[in-house]
Design brief:
The chain has 8 helices and 8 strands, in the order αααβββαβαββαβαβα. It is α/β, with parallel strands linked by helices. The chain has one domain: Aminopeptidase. Strands 1-2-4-3-5-8 form a 6-stranded mixed beta sheet, sandwiched between helices. It has a two-stranded parallel sheet with strand order 6-7. Strand 6, helix 6 and strand 7 form a beta-alpha-beta unit. The radius of gyration is 22 Å and the shape is globular. The C terminus is likely disordered.
């Protein structure tokens, strides 16, 4: 009888241990696919600490290496698309995962503007923009998505970091240069393109952008509403030229997720203290859930 109890006790101990290990593995797996706003904020800080990521600068090259290294560490297939426009070297960073359809592209520019021409202080208007919100925040969201998007998604996903978006009226070559070149070289037609830009503001208010594809807009705003993110406001306010514009011009469905009410736009005050982990999470979590639901997302917001 004593031997039987010992066997029963050992069996119970093994079963409890197996259950505990299973719960830990489930918890670890779940946490691997949770968008962490604090981790994204660290990515913002790292980029800003490099200095302004203006075209041709050492900080710009360091940003390219950092983004590339982060993507490769998460087993994304990474390539750098290079060209020269108006004498300026352009480097788009493209990360790919999955095959088949649907094919979804998520994009952000990673460069920062060379002149703070909207600064209230005229003395600062020739200085470069730190680009914490305008450039670093959306780049950070894509980097965190690269960490948490499940590797076995049944769709083709590209994360694209565009160069030379932010120097229109400064370089003489116009806006969205990197994305324009990317679209000109694109083979095939993606099903949906989502651009994020200036989405880390502590006082985040994202209105629907007027040129964006309305069906995709409704899908994303519906997901945000279901998640309880009131930062997504279901009305149209601005019409923008941004990295979604070249896609729209090519007949590709695209949207621009942007908070253009940011008071530090193109000023020397676009610094890390203006960005919050909560805002980064609201956008990143919405994008992750939309991507997981796509194309089954049911638009409910007019």
């Amino acid at each position: 009888m004593a031997k039987w109890f010992r066997v029963l006790g050992l069996t119970l101990v093994i079963m409890i241990a197996i259950s505990a290990i299973t719960l830990v593995l489930i918890s670890v797996n779940k946490n691997q696919h949770v968008f962490e706003g604090a981790r994204a904020l660290n990515d913002v800080k790292y980029q800003v600490d490099l200095g302004p990521r203006t075209m041709g600068s050492a900080a710009h090259e360091q940003a390219v290496r950092y983004i590339t290294d982060q993507l490769k560490s998460q087993n994304w297939q990474v390539e750098i698309q290079e060209t020269v426009v108006s004498g300026q070297s352009i480097k788009n960073i493209i990360a790919k995962r999955g095959v088949g359809t649907p094919w979804v592209i998520l994009g952000s520019h990673y460069d920062s503007r060379s002149i703070a021409d909207q600064d209230k202080n005229p003395v600062n208007r020739k200085l470069p923009v730190p680009g914490a919100n305008d450039g670093a925040s959306s780049t950070a969201i894509l980097l965190e998505l690269a960490r948490v998007i499940p590797p076995n998604e049944n769709k083709e996903i590209w994360l694209v970091f565009f160069d030379d978006e932010d120097n229109g009226d400064a370089s003489g070559s116009g806006w969205s240069i990197g994305s324009t070149y990317f679209v000109s070289q694109l083979q095939g037609k993606p099903d949906s393109v989502v651009i994020v830009d200036m989405v880390g503001d502590k006082d985040l208010n994202i209105y629907k952008e007027g040129n964006s594809d309305r069906e995709i807009n409704n899908e994303i705003w519906s997901v945000a509403k279901n998640l309880g993110y009131a930062q997504f406001i279901p009305t149209y306010k601005y019409t923008m030229i941004d990295d979604h514009t070249p896609f729209l011009n090519a007949g590709i469905r695209a949207v621009d997720i942007i908070d253009f009410d940011y008071p530090y736009w193109h000023t020397t005050s676009d610094t890390v203290d203006k960005v919050s982990a909560e805002s980064l999470k609201a956008v990143g979590d919405t994008m992750l859930n939309w991507l997981e639901e796509y194309p089954q997302a049911s638009p409910q917001v007019p």
